[in-house]
User: Fold this.
Amino acid sequence: MTNTVWIKHALLATIKGQQGPRSKEAMSELGLIEDGSVWLEDGRISAVGTTAELEGKYADRSAEAKVIDAKGQLVTPGLVDPHTHVAYGGSREDEFEKRLQGTSYMDIMNAGGGIHATMRMTREATEEELVEQTTKRLNSFLEHGVTTVEGKSGYGMNLETEMKQLKVMKRLNAEHPIDLVPTFMGAHAVPFEYKGKEDKFVDYLIDTMLPEVAELAEFNDVFCEKNVYTPEQSERILEAGKKYGLTPKIHADEIVSYGGAELAAKVGAISAEHLLKASDEGIQAMADAGVIACLLPATALYLREEAAQGRKMIDSGVAVAISTDCNPGSSPTVSMPLVMNLACISMRLTPAEALVAATYNAACAIKREDRAGSIEVGKQADIVLWKVKSYQELQYLFGVNHVQTVWKNGERMVG
Ligand code: NIG
Ligand code: FE
Assistant:
């Protein structure tokens, strides 16, 4: 039996509310309980209520539990990061300087750097080296209150290295406390040997890679972008993935408006990512089709671009999730707390919406809402105690890691 933990006297943001991706007013459903209490047992949440209620229920078992007095501080579910490229080799700080001097992200990529540079470093890295590097990042995610992380392949762009990345994620999902959810992203860039022959690479990806990677992945993602994959090529890849049971996701309208949001609605993607340049029609199509917008305000900041229109998307009825996009080029961060701050500052989400976007809606974007994203009986005991007295303060005091304690499956991991 694992630890039994009894958290008392917390301001509990349970995020309990409407089932399924939340949009409009439901994005503000925090399920707040003042002087709240949670009982964690065998890795699960066994009871949630006021401290007085749980004192009644557990009066004769209080000696069994490690009691934590939250002293009125905020307690939330473990944060969920639904979009990362966490399992990569090497580092690209040289490009950071180049970009500051004026070279664009896409120019660097088209000249063989960017994603191609990380592809080379990831191809060269052994499985052990990738496990070691990725473990450090996952540890840091935990320290920032994140207990579930999606991770994409896509720095191999050949069968061997895509499989290596997916195996690393499978291993870490088993060995590391964080739950790691695998996505195949073979269409992350066009490998140099296929420049001008993009359709040939799409054939290779569909005929050779998909049948092999499908057993190691749950989602299939494509960089649908001008000079990368067209909407037509992206659609072929995503439709082919569906035949292997892979759910579509799309890096859509990140650099230019390219019909990515519209395509997400057309293929029934669970989420569309980035959306900095999404068209009004695309936003409406996503709302109508129930596609979650996975917005990445740290990436926009890091690329010195205008953030996505988060406020407008919520007002248009789109369910919004937020994520770090943790990757070595456009967003080298693991800080979901910073991403929540930025969601408020640069996309005008309210503090409550930002919290739902980083928990329940994020879990929906990776099909984990049955076990993560809210504090409800039966779910995994993934809980964060924050050094703040309100959820507004969590979003207001920005750029700081307010984590005090993190429990993952009921085990104390941080603090
Ligand atoms: O989500 N846009 C494409 N992919 C990543 C960046 C990957 C990289 O630069 O290494 C993104 O921003
Ligand atoms: Fe990304």
User: Anything to note?
Assistant: The first strand starts at residue 5 and ends at 13. The chain has 16 helices and 16 strands. The radius of gyration is 21 Å. The chain has a mean pLDDT of 97.
